[in-house]
Amino acid sequence: MGLLFIFNVIIDVESWKSYQFIISRYFICLLFAVILLQLKKSTLLLTCLIAVDLRGMKPELISNDLCPFVQCSVITLLEKNIEFDVTYIDLERPPTWFLETSPLAMVPILKHNGSVLFESAVINEYIDEIAPPSIHPNNSMEKANNRSWIRFSSRLIDLQTSLSTADSKEDFTYILQELSQGLKNFEKYILNSPFFNGEKFSLVDAAIAPFFLRLRLMETRRRLGLLEGLPNLQAWSKALIARPSVINSVRNDFNLKFLNYIKTHSKYAALIFAR
Questions:
Q1: What is the pLDDT of residue 8?
Q2: Sheet (strand 115-118) strand order
Q3: Please, how many CA atoms are within 13 Å of residue 47, restricted to the half-sphere of its CB?
Q4: 206 plus 179 within the same structural domain
Q5: Are residues 198 and 109 in the same domain?
Q6: Rg (CA), the chain
Q7: Is residue 135 one of the residues assigned to a domain?
Q8: Are strands 115-118 and 60-63 parallel, antiparallel or unpaired?
Q9: What pLDDT does 31 receive?
Q10: Residue ranges, the chain, pLDDT below 70
Q11: What is the pTM of this model?
């Protein structure tokens, strides 16, 4: 009876409707049922359900190794302890299968159980939902507020990318001013520590971490002073950069590749950051 209950609970999960996985999941359920019967610990049931409910096959992230939005999704996957595969592509020479798969011809896209998701914010919420407990707030207003700041973080990343590829001093100066003002606005709303919502890491943290990581690298080549006089952002940046999921979200050669990208994709910014 107990085995039947466990099996029914698991296969009722929406993502398990695909018949191609039922046989393998059935045997996994049998294994977990035996463990439960042996150990007789109810807490193990939740662990088993979470482990099996990581949805059949491993997610595959289609990525470019320098894209900050891909990095957001990698951070989220690492935070949720989800095993995943990564396929790297060259966005300047994208393969045909990618163009046929991605509606925007942009990364990241996530392939999972025969479906495809695009847009990092959407991907990250999906990842969060399939692997409880959630790192998104439960309160509707707090969740909506977090989504607003995730969008704001994306805007900062876009400006940072434009700064790193600026072709003239005028463009560089203008973008730098825009970034400075945006960060000053952000500073006023950082009310908790060490992370955006306090002690608990959230999707907002995953969204802004790539910005701070790149800013630190750019600062090693040219002092920009963007975080000066912004103690809340300074503390937040320090906490995120030191977090294992952020450290491990980029490849070992990331610093060199990032600086080389600036050198080959800009005129003025290359003189500042890639020397």
A1: 40
A2: 85-88, 60-63, 109-112, 115-118
A3: 8
A4: yes
A5: no
A6: 21
A7: no
A8: unpaired
A9: 58
A10: 1-56, 274-275
A11: 0.80
